[in-house]
Every structure is written in C-alpha cells, then in structure tokens.
Specification:
The protein is of the alpha/beta class and 496 residues long. The chain is 35% helix and 22% strand. The chain is built from 15 helices and 20 strands. The structure holds flavin-adenine dinucleotide.
Length: 496
C-alpha cells in the first residue's frame, strides 16, 4: 500500500508495506553476520540481522546430548596466540570476556598418512626439524616451503600488524597466488608422501584440495596452525555468543530470529533496497549484506537482476565437502599423546579427523569425515537412502577409530551423529558444504561486491573457517568504513 505527503513542493510516495528502514540488513547470524553487524553498529550504523533459526550462530552454538556439551562447527583455530588476530578481533568487538583461548600443546598433532605416523609440533622451527626428520632427503624443499608460507603470511596485514590495511585483500590474494600449493611443491621436487601429508592437513581445514587451493590461501590457513594452533573450550563458545548478543543489543542492532529471507529486493536501477521474509514481510535498507552460500543468490533475486555471466560464475563454483560428524562419550580416561589425530588412506581416499576434548565430567571424542562426493544433492535421496548412507559412513568412521585406537573399542558411546544434510537443514549451506564454495585456482573466487549495487557478500565462501568468516567481515567493513581509523582501533586494542 502506498500513501503520499508533501515535502517542500515535492510529492513523496511512501510504500507502507515496508515495516522498518535500516542502513544495513545482514542476512544470517553466523559468525560472519554477527561480526559484520557489530562492527557496523559500533561505527554508528543502524543495523538489523535476520536469521532463519531460533537462535544466533546455529553452526557454532554448543548443544547438549546425554549431559555432554558438543559444538558442531568450531573445534580448532589458528592464530590463537597472545596479541594475534583472533584476540585482536574479539577484543575490538568486546566479546572476549570469560572466553578462554587454549593453545594446543602438541601443535597440529598426529597425522597418519598411508599408515605412516607423523607428529607435527607447534612453531616453524620445530615443524622444520620434524619434517626434515621424516623426509631427510628433502631438507631444502621443506625450508623453501616453510619460508614461503612465512613470507606470504608476513605480507598480510591481518597477521602482520605493522602493515597498513589494504582495502581489497581478495584481489591481492588472487594476483599473488596463481598456482596451487600442490603445483608449487611438485615444482620444488617434493616427494608425493610429503605433498599427501600437507594436503591431508590442509584439506580438513579449508575444504579445497592441494591441486586446487591457491598457495596463498593455503599459507593463510596452515600458517596459523603452524604458528599458534588452539581451540576454545565449548563453554567459552557459548559465552562468546552471549557476549555478541550483549554487544549487539548495546549498539541497537535488531536481531530477527526465526525469520528466513525469501528475497533480496532490488529497485528498477538494480540496487538493493531491502529484503522480504518467507512470511511476506518487507524491510527496507540502504544496503543488504548476505552471508549464505553465494550459489543461493540466484533464487533470491528477481530474474534479470544478475547478468548471465555472473550466474554462470555462481553455477561454476564448486561447493566444499559436507561433514559426517560422530560424537562419542569416552567411558574411561584416555592416555593418548595427541588430542588431535588426522588419518588419511590415499588408496581409499579416506580422510578422518579425530579430536579429543575434556568435558566437565568426561572426555568427548569427535570424528569428522568429509563426504568426498561434493556434488551430491541430498534432496534427491529418500529418507531410507539417507539412513542407509549414514549407517555406512558411521561404520567407516568406527572401523577407522578402532583401527587407530584399538584399546578404546568398548569404551565409546555414540551421543550424536550429524550428516551433511543436517547442516543443510539448519544453515541452508548447499549440500551441507562445511566451508561454503571452494577456493580454487581454476575459477575466480567470490569477493564482497556482487554486481548489484548496495548488495554485498561476506562469510566462509570468501575466506574459509571461523577466522576466515571473521576476516571476511572485517575486510568488507574496511571497504565500507574509513579504513585507516577503523583498523587502528582493531590493532591498537590492548591485549586483555
Ligand atoms: C562440522 C563442521 C566443523 C567445523 N569445524 C571448524 C573448526 O574446527 N574450525 C574452523 O575454523 N571452522 C570450522 N568449520 C567451519 C566454520 O564453522 C564455518 O566456516 C563458519 O562458522 C562459517 O560462518 P559463516 O558466518 O560464513 O556461515 P554460517 O555459519 O553458515 O552463517 C550463515 C547463516 O545464515 C543463515 N541463513 C541462511 N540462509 C538464510 C536466509 N535465507 N534467511 C535468514 N538466514 C539465513 C544460516 O542459518 C546461518 O546461521 C566447521 C564446519 C563444520 C560444518
């Protein structure tokens, strides 16, 4: 419905079907959406978040099964050292109170590749010595590889705080990384065993394989795990999310829960002007920021808004794998040297990550297995077929655990089992993809700007993982806000 009034000598029409008007509407309350909304609100913008679930951060929020807390989507994180970027971000956002960060004593942990066991410690020097011990004939290759990782990381202002912020980080990423890290290692005569080891370590954290992952993206993720790998205890994650709620409310951000966005509204000049929810309500905004899988954009915009060339880019983008995740209560104390084990069997292309966490009253073993078939469309599966597939995958996970840790065969109690379609159901990420769309040298990755004015993209499809999603939020805000003064507040924030 429209009504009009006079302003000076102008007749203005106001569309009353719009409920409220914001500077920025953020679609999705995952870590990227929460971070973007809070930064913009702290910097004086009127912001709203729309989330289809009944609470914020469904992918991160720990939940309880059989009295045990488990978190779906945040188990490990790089750059967890004092004064490093995770701390800077959380302090700037003022969400770090009561949130413990733990550095992993054993570094990356144990990696078993084709039945050979490697222990990957923490810190470049220690890793260099360990890798040279396992591959004594390739010392120079290993040194060159680690030096290049350090060099790449050192050129990125998120990790080297003496550098000024670059507004468009992604462009420099693309320019500087035309080759995949597998091609780099092959060119430097690395043996296949070493490449497989590094690929297994990296694939679990990024969702793109060594032959597709740009070296620079590999360095940014693995660099953090070489230098300062760590984790947040689950109660710390809950606390962090509660802190987000407190800060968002302090800065007047309106959070709409159980509100799924059906459409991003665009005017005749092809600029975003708001959103429409599935219950038909419209909200007006000068800008819209979406955090979901970019492949969903086509269905959210009217026909003709996106040019065919961009639609083709969306179609060409591949999704990262979806995870099968099994959580077990461990009925007795486990004496294992590493709390994190990665198992890779190249012949079966079987990759499984195991993480042991201490809960308040017991140990919890989490097992992550990627679905290698990333183009699966679970929609076509009947409930019966899904059940059958899930049972097969669970069996594979359990056989692998018993193979690696035979002594605990009778001490595990399954408490929760998540499948790729569980993640798709909650977060709408296509095929349950754990890290959104793939990072690949084969096609141009996504940036914040979408060819629709005032419509932006943030989230894991730009930079993968918890920290990547946060970086994507900060880098969009660097584009939107006056970068130098805003960034100064982030890096100058005193370590608490
Ligand atoms: C099993 C698993 C384990 C993982 N482990 C780790 C780990 O240990 N370390 C790490 O760094 N990363 C890990 N990740 C990846 C990490 O969790 C993600 O990269 C990160 O949380 C993504 O954040 P995001 O904000 O980009 O996306 P999301 O968290 O997916 O946020 C998008 C939000 O948008 C909402 N949404 C979607 N469509 C709509 C709509 N139409 N209307 C309204 N709301 C909508 C969704 O519900 C969701 O809340 C893991 C992922 C999985 C699946």
């Amino acid at each position: 419905m429209k009504f009009c009034w006079f302003w000076g000598n102008k007749l203005l029409f106001v569309d009353q079907s719009y409920l409220e008007k914001f500077d920025y509407i953020v679609v999705g309350a995952g870590i990227s959406g929460l971070t973007t909304a809070l930064i913009l609100a702290k910097e004086g913008k009127k912001v709203a978040i729309f989330e289809r679930n009944s609470d914020i951060a469904p992918l991160l929020r720990p939940y309880k099964r059989k009295g045990v807390s488990i978190s779906p989507g945040l188990h490990v994180c790089g750059w967890m050292g004092k004064g490093e970027i995770v701390e800077k971000f959380l302090n700037y956002l003022n969400v770090s109170d009561g949130v413990e960060k733990v550095l992993s004593e054993n570094g990356y942990g144990t990696v078993i590749v084709n039945n050979k066991i490697y222990n990957i410690p923490r810190g470049y020097e220690a890793i260099k010595e360990a890798l040279c011990f396992y591959f004594p004939d390739y010392r120079q290759t290993i040194i060159n590889y680690l030096d290049l990782i350090k060099e790449c990381v050192d050129q990125i202002f998120y990790f080297n705080h003496s550098l000024p912020p670059l507004k468009n980080l992604h462009t420099s990423f693309i320019d500087a990384s035309n080759s995949s890290f597998r091609v780099y290692l092959q060119k430097h005569n690395a043996p296949e065993e070493l490449i497989e080891l590094l690929d297994a370590m990296s694939y679990l954290l990024v969702g793109s394989r060594g032959n597709e992952l740009p070296f620079l993206m590999h360095s940014f993720v693995i660099g953090g795990f070489f230098q300062s790998p760590g984790f947040f205890p689950f109660n710390g994650i809950t606390r962090m999310l509660d802190n987000f709620k407190r800060e968002l409310s302090k800065y007047g951000v309106k959070i709409f829960l159980n509100k799924e966005i059906k459409k991003v509204l665009v005017d005749e000049k092809k600029q975003a002007i708001g959103v429409e929810t599935v219950d038909g309500k419209k909200y007006s905004s000068s800008n819209v920021i979406v955090t979901f899988n970019p492949k969903l954009l086509v269905s959210m915009l009217d026909k003709g808004v996106l040019r065919p060339i961009f639609i083709k880019r969306l179609e060409d983008a591949q999704n990262t794998f979806g995870f099968y995740v099994a959580y077990y209560k461990v009925k007795r104390e486990l004496k294992i040297t590493s709390k994190s084990i990665v198992f890779y069997d190249g012949h079966r292309d079987l990759l499984i990550g195991l993480i042991l966490n201490e809960n308040s009253n017991c140990y919890v073993l989490s097992a992550f297995m990627p679905e290698n078939e990333t183009n699966f469309s679970y929609e076509k599966f009947s409930e019966e077929q899904k059940k059958e597939l899930a049972m097969k995958k669970l069996q594979l996970i359990e056989d692998t655990i018993y193979n690696i840790l035979p002594e605990i065969k009778n001490d595990l109690e399954l408490i929760s089992f998540l499948k790729p379609w569980s993640f798709e159901k909650y977060t709408k990420t296509v095929n349950g993809s754990a890290y959104g769309t793939k990072q690949s040298v084969d096609y141009i990755g996504f940036q914040h700007k979408i060819p629709v004015k005032n419509l932006y993209l943030v989230g894991q499809s730009i930079y993968p993982g918890f920290l990547g999603a946060m970086i994507s939020a900060f880098s969009l805000c660097l584009e939107i806000l006056e970068s130098n003064s805003f960034w100064a507040k982030v890096v100058e924030n005193e370590t608490k």
